[in-house]
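Notebook entry, structure prediction.
Reason for the run: the old model in the group folder had no record of what sequence produced it. Starting over properly, with the input documented here first.
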Amino acid sequence: MIKPNFYLPKTLLTTNNAKTVKGEKKGFKTYILYMSPSRANDAGKNVCSHASPGCIASCLVGSGFGGMYTGVKAGRRNKTNFFIAERQKFLIQLDAEISKAVLKHEKKDDAIVTIRLNGTSDIPFENIIIKDGKNIFQLHPKVQFYDYTKNFTRFDKPLPKNYHLTFSRSETNHDKAMGLLKRGFNVAMVFDKLVDTFEGFKVINGDESDLRFKDKKNVIVGLRYKKMTGKNADNSLAFTSGFAIQTTKVVALPKVKKQILRKAA
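New structure, fully documented this time:
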């Protein structure tokens, strides 16, 4: 494996997200770790093991600031290179940043800190030991963590009590998604327009906030498709691939022949 080039980032976590800001009105401050998805790193290592072609083609990383600014893309790639090249140093910095964030808001008494580790990646952090035989969730047992994942195997064993996972449906895992719903888990699905129910399950509006651990169980978390904003972005791929679900169809109107009106003689 090629050892990636990187510089030490000033911070790994960010609160700069339009959706998580909505949670602040409910008393929560969310810090997110944004990395580059799939194999978008110097080593070509896959940090989204179960990503589908449709997911990769229309990834959220290409929307918002991630799509508009090359500096944001470069910063996320650098964090991924750091994680791959010096994992232990990366995790120690992550641990320290979480502790700092918790202390900051405890002193202010202004918000409850929540952490989303996979903003644009899908890494099973529950399997990664940092120190004293503990993973990041065990090191911060009073902090609420949450994520979305396409890795259905993560639901086959108990997760840390302070870690909430929502499965993410794609064009290649629809059967797995429906199976997890039947088992009582929640599944996020991307739609062109939200509906009340889908295939017999209640759909909630997942865009109202990102606080997935507050959702009722056994529901579909409906998310509207977020358009990619990068240069030459093709937003049709999300729907032609089947990654996003179309609930509305364009009905072609019949062609009307032009009538030539003749003036009365």
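Summary: Strands lie at 13-14, 28-33, 112-116, 144-149, 163-168, 187-191, 197-198, 201-205, 220-224.
The old model has been moved to the deprecated folder.
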